[in-house]
What does this fold into?
Amino acid sequence: MKRWSRAGIVFALVITMVIVAVPGKVSAGTNLFFSSPDIAPGLWTWTSGATGSEVLPDTLTVPAPAWRLLKTNGLVISGPAYICHEFTGDQVGWVGDIYMLNGDTWTKLVTTLEWVPTIEGHQMACAQAPAAGTYALFAYWEKPDGWNT
It folds into this structure.
């Protein structure tokens, strides 16, 4: 009888060790460059006498331009202004552009990357908004030269 008890205990221990040692689901992890990191934190800023406010992305019903992802809230302004939004994505291969909503299409504006107010400030994507309207920052990832992935 003792022999069977020991055998049962040993069997139970072996089964427990096998169950514990077998891994569960395996995940390759998340690649931060292809997931959606926060590459455009913060709020819109603009200069001039124009008034403005941010609108949530779900209120922008016009699809994004090809190969681009919406990275910010929209900005609705009352007149021409120089607009900027923080954009740190270029440091990890993202290309960002500010677009103006024209009817049912997005029109790309000339977008520059600047340190605002100086190199000790924030890196911003900026553009001259030519008129009152809705604006947004879109981005896409482009493999940087010399990147080995």
